[in-house]
Amino acid sequence: MKKVKVLILRTAGTNCDYETQFAFELCKAVVERVHISSLVERKDRISKYDILVFPGGFSYGDDIASGKILANEIKNKLGDEIKKFALDNKPIIGICNGFQVLVKMGLLPEPDVFRQSSTLSYNDSGKFECRWVYLKTCKKNDSESNCIWTKNLPDIISLPIAHGEGKFIPSNKKLLSTLNKNEQVVFKYSTKNGDIPQYPLIPNGSIEQIAGMCNAKGNVFGLMPHPERYIFSLQHPAKKGFNKKYGWGKVIFQNAVDFVK
Amino acid sequence: MKHSLVCKIVDILDLSDRELVKLSKINVLALSLIEMKTIQGYFAKLKRNPTDVELETIAQTWSEHCKHKTLTGIIEYIQENQEGKIKKIYNNLLKETIFKATVELNKKWCLSVFEDNAGIIEFDSKNGVAFKVETHNHPSALEPYGGSATGVGGVIRDILGVGLGAKPLANTDIFCFGEPNIKDSKVPEGMHHPKRIAKGVVSGVRDYGNKMGIPTVNGAVYFDNGYMSNPLVYCGTMGIISKNKIKKKVNHGDLILVVGGKTGRDGIHGATFSSVQIDKKSDLSVVQIGNPIVEKKVLDAMLKARDLNLYRAVTDCGAGGLSSAIGELGAKTGAIVYLDKVPLKYDGLRPWEIWISESQERMVFAVPKKNKKKLIEIFKKENVEAALIGEFTEDKKLTLIYNNDIVANIDMHFLHNGIPKLKRLAIYKEKKEKIQKSVDMNSLEILKALKVILADLNVCSKEWIIRQYDYEVQGQTIIKPLQGNNIEISGPGDAVVIFPYSIVKNTKKGIVLSNGLNPQYGKINTYKMAASAIEESLRNAVSVGADIEKIAILDNFCWGNPNKSEILGSLVRAANACYDISKAFEVPFISGKDSLHNEYSVDGRKYSIPPALLISAIGVIEDVANTVTMPLKDEGNKIFILGITRNELGGSVFSKVKGFKNGIVPSVYPNESRTIMKKIYQTINRNLIESCHDCSEGGLAIAVSEMAFASGKGVYVDIDTINIGVEESLTTAETLFSESNGRFIVEIKPKNVTEFKNLIKDCVFAEIGYVRDDRKVVFESRKNKIKVQEKSEVLFNSWSGTINW
User: Fold this and answer.
1) Cα A54 from Cα B211, distance rounded (Å)
2) Of all residues in chain B, what percent carry a pLDDT higher than 70?
3) Is it the case that residue B271 has pLDDT exceeding 70?
4) What is d(CA A220, CA A102) in angstroms, rounded to the nearest whole number?
5) What values do phi and psi take at B559, rounded to 5?
6) How many CB atoms lie within 10 A of CB B404?
7) Which among B213, B333, B336, B429 is least buried, having the fewest CB atoms inside 10 angstroms?
8) Residues of the domain holding A66
9) Are A130 and A194 in contact (CB under 8 A)?
10) Which of A14, A22, A234 sits opposite B478 (nearest CB)?
C-alpha cells in the first residue's frame, strides 16, 4: 500500500505541530515537520508530498494581524508551488492559525483566484478564549459533506477552540452566497441540537456561524477548531468518543489519508 | 551627552563603614555592611580597588534572589507559647528542614533534587519530568503585563535549562492581588490599582504562555488587601526529559555560546532589586521586556541540537543575566568572556550593564569546539541569534574582557563561597486560638451565607481568567482546569492531568499537577498554613486519581522583610511544618524558591505582605484512563464523605464573611488523611468512583454545591450523618462551612456501594446523600430542623458572577 506523505510547514511561533504530526501518524501517514526556511531553499520538495498542513500557533507572534506575515511570506516565496498543490486536488488543511494563513493569502476560498477575499478578525468578546464548542457538519443534500476532510462525521460533533481572532468575515454578500451555493461551508458553530447558538457557544461572532470552510472542490480545508486535540476519547471533557477509544477529530485526518490512497 | 563606555574603578578600600553602606544603597547592590566589608577585605588582599563590573558581579551573585542567604544563613530561633520558650540555632534552615525531609525520605524515583534549575522525578524507565515554580513579584507590581510575561518566560527557561533541556509540557500560575473593587482613593500613591494589576498580570501570562504553545493548566488566585502594593505572581513550568539528558558537565576548553535574545538595558539590577522594598520611586528599568516568539524559536532549535548531542551543558539567563549563568556553569572551571562579543540591542551599554542585564530569552551553552559549526548552523536555520563569547578555562577565575581591557578578574571560589554567613534572630510568638461563639443560623441565613461564600473572591469562578489561557494546546490536557462539559457548564477542577502521548509513544501514564495555598491561615498560624497548603495540594492531586506514593512537592515562600525577627520567626515555623508534613505523608520536596523582602512603603511606613507559602504538587499516574473529575454524573448515585469534620473555622471564608475574630485554624492529621488518600487511589483504580472533589475553601457545602452545578444536577445531603470530631459539637452552619483538612466528597453507583465500603473500612466515612434528578441542591438536618435548598443553576450564577471583567 502507498505511504502517504504529509508536510507540516512550520515557522517561528508555530506550536501545534507535534500533536498534528501525531494525529496523521495515528492514521498511518509519514509526516515531516519542515521549517519554511528549508522549504524555500528546495521549493521542488513540496510536490513530493501528498498532504500539506498549516498548523496552529502564533506565526511570527501574530503581529500586524493573525497569520498575515506568514501568509505574505508563503505567497511571495512559495506561491506558485502552493497554488499548484491545491489545483492538483491534493489535500491541504489549515487549522486555527493555519486557517488564518489560508484565508489571508487567498488560498481559501478560491485557490485558482488566489487573492484574499475574506478575513478572520477579532472575536466579538474582544478576548482570546479556550473552550469546547458544538459544530454542525454541513452536508450535501443532507447526506455527505462536500469537503474531502469531513466525510463520515455525525451531524453534530464537539471540538475545542482556542483563539482571539476567529470571526470569519467575507468581503461581501455575493461571496457568502457563492460559498453557500457551492457548499463550501463545512462547519458551523451550533447548539447541542443543531440550532443557531448564542455566545459563548459561538465564541467569536462569525458571520453565519462559520467555523470551517473549503474550496469548491473540497480539497483545501480551513477551520478554527482543533481536530488534532480530539483524536482520543480521553481528550474529551467527558471522555466520550467512538469505538471506545477515538475522538471525532481523528476521522478528519483519516479522511485525507484515505483520499490520497 | 555621550556615555562613557569604559569601566570604572570603584574606590572602596578607603571607605568607612558608613560610606560602604551608602555605596551599596546608591548602586542598588542590596549588600549588607558585613558583606561590603568582606568585599573590601578581598580586594585589600589583592592590593587594588574593584572595577564596577567586579562589584556588580559580586552583588548579583550574592543577592538573596540567587543565594538564598536568609534560608541558608544562621538563624537563632526563639519560640514562645503558653508552655514557655524553646530556643534553637539553625546553621542552615533549608538543609535542616525542607531538604532534610527529602534526604531522609530518600525516594529512588527522585532523579534530581535542589541542584539544577528544576527538580526531576521519574516518569517511566526512560524519562523524567521536571517541575519548577518561580516568583516574579516586584516586576509585576511596577509593570503587571511585562512583569508576569517575563515571569512565565523565565520559568520556561528554567525547564529548558534543566539538565540538557526538558521539553515544556505545561505551565501553572498562581497570583495574590489586592481586592479588585477597592476605591481608587484607598490605593497608595504611585501604585497601580489591584484590578489593573490583576488584568495586566493575566494578559501577560496569557500572551507569553499561549505564544509559547505551552498550555497554562493549573492555578489559583487569592485576593487580600495585604497584597495591594506587592502582588505575588508565581509561575511554574513542567517539562519532560530523557533520563540520559539529566546530567550536565562543563569541560575546560568548551566554548561559551549565548543564544536567543539580544542584550539591552532592560532588567538591570533585577536580582538585587527583588531584595529592596517597593515604593513610588521604584525604577522601571529593572523590569525586563519579553518576546515569546524569540523564546519559542530558541526552544525549537535547542531541542533539535540537544537530540544531536551537540553541547555539554546549558543554563538560562535569569536573574543576574550572563553574570549568573556563566558564573554558575564555570564555577568549577573558570571562564573568560569577551563582553564586546555579546550581541546588543543597541549601542551604549557599559561593560557591567552587558554583564548583569536581565534581557530575556537568552540561554548559555558549553560547547565542545568540534561541534561549534554544526550547532551554530542549527540556530541560524531557525533564525536564532547565536554568538560565541568566550571559553571555559581551568584557572578557576572569572575573567572579563572588554575591547582588549581586562575589566574583571576575580576568583570563582570567592565569588561563590566568599559570602559571609548571615546571622539573624527569629522570634515566633504563638497566637492562642479560641473556638468562636457557637454559630446558630436558620435555613434562610445558611442559604444566604452559602451564596455569599460562592461569590467570594477567593471561592468564585476564575473562568474569566482560565479561558484566556490555551489550556488545550499540545492536546495532552486530559483532565482540564474547568470540569463539566466545558461547553455550557463547568466547575472548578481540583487538579489537571497531562497525558504526554505525543512525546512518549504508547504510554498510558500521565502527570498530575495541583497546588495548595492559604495565606488567611498564615495570619493566625504559619505552621498550620504550611501544613494545610501541603495537604491541600496532595488532596487536589488525589482527587483526580493521583497515587500519594508517587507525588513530589515544591515550596515557594513569599514573605516580608526577614530582618524583622517576628517575620523570620513565622517563616521558621512554616519551614518546620514543611519538614513534619513532608515526612509524615512521605512526600519529598524536589525544588523550591523563596522570595523574601516583599515589603513596600507608603507615606514612610513600611508594610510586609501576609506570608504566603505556595505548595505545588506533581505526581505520576499509571493509567490516564483511571482519572476522575468533580461534576456529579448520574441521578440516584450515592454521595459519601471521607474524613472528619471538626470545629475549624479559623481563617475560613465563612469567618471572613461573618467577621468572626475567633476560630481554630484547621490542623492536618497525617495518619488519618494519608490512609484516606491511599484508599481513594485504590477505589478510583477499580473504577468505583464516579466523581470526587476535595473540601477546601468554604467547606463541605461549597464542595457539594460545586459538584452539583458543574453538571447541572441536584443533590441531597443529610447533615446529621456527617462524622464530626470526637468531643466536639458543631451547629449545622459550622458543619457546612468548617474547613477541616483531609476530607473528600465522592459519588458512588448504588451497585458499587458494598464493594466501596468494604475497601474503605479503615477510614472514617459516611454515606451522606444522593444525586437528585430535579436539579435541586438540598442540605437537611432533621435534628436541628434545618433544610437549605436551592436550584443548582442559581448557585452556579452566584459562583460565576463575581469576576467578569
Assistant:
1) 16
2) 97
3) no
4) 9
5) -130, 170
6) 7
7) B429
8) 5-260
9) no
10) A234
Phi/psi of residue B72, nearest 5 degrees:
-100, 0
Q: Domain with A109 in it: what CATH number? A: 3.40.50.880
Mind telling me how many Å the CA of A199 is from chain B's nearest CA? 10
Q: How many domains does chain B have?
A: 1
For A26, which residue in chain B has the nearest alpha carbon? B502
What 3-state DSSP class applies to A144? strand
Query: What's the whole-number mean pLDDT along residues B362-369?
Result: 96
H or E element at residue B676 = helix B670-685
Query: Active-site residue among A16, A27, A73, A96?
Result: A96
d(Cα B338, Cα B316) in Å, to the nearest integer? 19
Contact (CB<8Å) A234/B467: no
**Which run of H or of E encompasses B70?**
helix B69-72
B interface with A, Cβ–Cβ below 8 Å: 206, 210-213, 291-293, 296-297, 300, 381-383, 466-478, 480, 483-488, 499, 501-503, 624-625, 629
Q: Is A130 a catalytic residue?
A: no
Owner of C-alpha cell 560547547 = B367
Residue type at A205 in one-letter notation? G
* Contact status of A58 with chain B (Cβ, < 8 Å): yes
Smallest CA–CA distance, residue A238 to chain B, in Å, is 6
Cβ atoms within 10 Å of B505's Cβ, excluding its own: 9
The C-alpha cell of B190 is what? 504611585
pLDDT in tens, B540-561: 999 999 999 999 999 999 999 9
pLDDT band per the 50, 70, 90 thresholds, residue B3: very low
Using pLDDT thresholds of 50, 70 and 90, give the confidence band for residue B285: low
- Grid cell, residue B459, equals 471561592
CA–CA dist B307, B374 (Å, integer) = 13
Rounded to 5 degrees, what angle do the CA atoms A206, A208, A209 make? 50
Residues 6+ away with beta carbon under 8 Å from B210: A58, A128, A162, B216, B469, B470, B473
Helix (H) or strand (E) holding B94: helix B93-96
In a domain, B429, yes or no: no
Q: B91: buried, middle or exposed (CB in 10 Å: 19+, 13-18, 0-12)?
A: exposed
**A258 grid coordinates:** 484515505
Q: Cell 574582557 maps to which residue?
A: B401
Spatial distance between the Cα atoms of B788 and B148, rounded to a whole number of angstroms:
42
Residues 6 or more apart from A119 whose CB is under 8 A from it? A65, A103, A104, A168, A169, A171
Write out pLDDT tens, residues B678-697.
999 999 999 999 999 999 99
Domain count, chain A: 1
Tell me which chain A residues have a C-beta less than 8 angstroms from the C-beta of B381. 35, 37-38
Going from the C-alpha of B538 to that of each of B129, B412, B617, B744, the distances in angstroms are 18, 41, 7, 12
For residue range B58-74, list pLDDT tens digits in order: 998 998 877 888 888 99
Residues 59 to 118 of A: which have CB under 8 A from any B CB?
60-62
For B111, other C-beta atoms within 10 Å of its C-beta total 22
In-domain check, residue B720 = yes
Pairs of residues, one from chain A and one from chain B, whose beta carbons lie less than 8 Å apart: 107
Spell out, as residue ranges, where chain A has pLDDT lower than 50: none
Domain assignment present for residue B65? The answer is no
Q: Which ipTM value was assigned to this complex?
A: 0.96
pTM here is: 0.96
Q: Name the residue with cell 517541575.
A: B131
Residue B771 lies in a domain: yes
Q: Which of B473, B483, B503 shows the shortest C-beta gap to A16?
A: B473
Q: What is the DSSP letter of B593?
A: E
Q: How far apart are CA B393 and CA A162, in angstroms?
A: 49
User: Which residues form the domain of B681?
Assistant: 628-805
CA distance A171 to B10: 66
Residue labelled with grid coordinates 468564585: B460
Average pLDDT score over residue span B778-783: 96
The CATH code of the domain that includes B761 is 3.90.650.10
